[in-house]
Write a structure and sequence with these properties.
It is built from 16 helices and 9 strands. It is an alpha/beta fold. It has a single domain, classed as Deoxyhypusine synthase (Deoxyhypusine Synthase). α5 runs parallel beside α10, α8 crosses α11 and α9 crosses α10. The radius of gyration is 25 Å and the shape is globular. The termini are far apart.
């Protein structure tokens, strides 16, 4: 560009605008465009779509990275034992209320995950949907109008109050039976503690419905953790039950469950996290992986932002600073509402033709009425002391 003479651009302006570029590093990827002309005479597969999006930029590239990380989780095998990645799946309750429940059920039915963490609503809504339908509504429907009709709104979904009445009719007799078993075992060698994971295991057995996520978790011995078990309709039922059963009370021990999920993480040959949404489900999994000095891979999918310092908004790199994701881990956060993107990710990963048993299978539970060795995460757990020593040694090796 001319910089001198009549009509020339001032040198200072040219220098500011036309800064000389350095050569791009070797191996730099070019932005690619998804050209549908390439599919004019053929069907477009999910793999085609993801491949075309991976170098598109923005969240399309994050989706492609999520698919790559999950497929790496699925394909990894320990070179000595052939054990698979222990995959922790976390999701919030609204996703069970939505039609994404079927996708989550598929993962559990086919042993694609090793352990689950969700909220109280993520438990109860699964069973409630076995007892009554959830309906499409609108985000804009006035709350007062719905309240007068006995309809509860979850975003643009509607749940009739009658569904919760049906849930109460179903669950209270089960709570009665659980209390009777607890009281009958008191003071005997068979004395045991209920935990959130044992309660969910029992309810999954009792629902006996193949549409249920937790029926398949029960069938496949996949532990489901819910540290906030009382924060929802199930908590309402437990509260009501305290009056019905008084003076006897159902006791649910959260300490046994925290030992259990942390031990699963500590003993994993490799740990991966797939977390939809934020809050307790995200942090509970990440904190369990802290006990092993971090997960080897992580995929977050949520819409939260980090400017408010929330756990939900935190990117994977923040978890690295805490030791919850390893420094050299493969990780990505997809900024997207999960129902819009997770089915496509599953189609390109867990649901690919021939896919089965992607995740490490944990040893089967002994039985729901055992004490601390119940639902053992190790096939050789002869005594609590021996277990503690093994866990401590494993943690020390991981951190050294």
């Amino acid at each position: 560009m001319a910089t001198n003479g009549g009509g020339a651009v001032p040198e200072s302006v040219a220098a500011a605008v036309l800064v000389k570029s350095e050569e791009m590093p070797a191996g730099s990827k070019k932005v690619e465009e998804l050209d549908f002309n390439a599919f004019a005479d053929s069907k477009i597969t999910v793999e085609d779509l993801i491949a075309g999006m991976t170098n598109m930029g923005f969240q399309a590239s994050s989706i492609g990275e999520a698919v790559k990380i999950i497929n790496d989780m699925r394909e990894w095998r320990d070179p000595e034992t052939s054990e698979k990645t222990t995959i922790f799946l976390g999701y919030t309750s609204n996703l069970i209320s939505s039609g994404l429940r079927g996708t989550l059920r598929y993962l559990v039915q086919h042993n694609h995950v090793s352990a689950i963490v969700t909220t109280a609503g993520g438990i109860e809504e699964d069973f409630i949907k076995c007892l009554g339908s959830t309906y499409m509504g609108a985000f804009s429907t006035p709350g007062a109008e719905l309240r007068a009709k006995g309809l509860n709104r979850i975003g643009n979904l509607l749940v009739p109050n009658a569904n919760y009445c049906a849930f109460e009719d179903w669950v209270v007799p089960i709570l009665d039976a659980m209390l009777s078993e607890q009281e009958a075992a008191k003071g005997t060698e068979a004395e045991f503690h209920w935990t959130p994971s044992k309660v969910i295991h029992r309810l999954g057995k009792e629902i006996n419905n193949e549409e249920s996520v937790y029926y398949w978790a029960y069938k496949n011995n996949i532990p489901v953790f819910c540290p906030a078990l009382t924060d929802g309709s199930l908590g309402d039922m437990l509260y009501f039950h305290t009056f019905k059963s008084s003076p006897a009370q159902l006791r649910i021990d959260i300490v046994e469950d925290i030992r259990r999920i942390n031990t699963i993480a500590v003993r994993a040959k490799r740990a991966g996290m797939v977390i939809l949404g934020g809050g307790v489900v995200k942090h509970h999994i990440a904190n369990a992986c802290l006990m092993r000095n971090g997960a080897e891979s992580a995929v977050y999918i949520n819409t939260a932002q980090e400017f408010d310092g929330s756990d939900a908004g935190a990117r994977p790199d923040e978890a690295v600073s805490w030791g919850k994701i390893k420094v050299d881990a493969a990780s990505v956060k997809v900024y997207c509402e999960a129902t819009a993107v997770f089915p496509m990710i599953v189609a390109a990963t867990f649901a690919k033709p021939g896919s089965k048993d992607s995740a490490q299978k944990l040893p089967s539970a002994v039985n729901a009425h055992s004490t601390s060795s119940s639902f053992s995460v190790s096939e050789s757990n002869p005594t609590p002391a021996a277990s503690e020593s093994a866990d401590a040694a494993h943690v020390e090796n991981e951190q050294n």
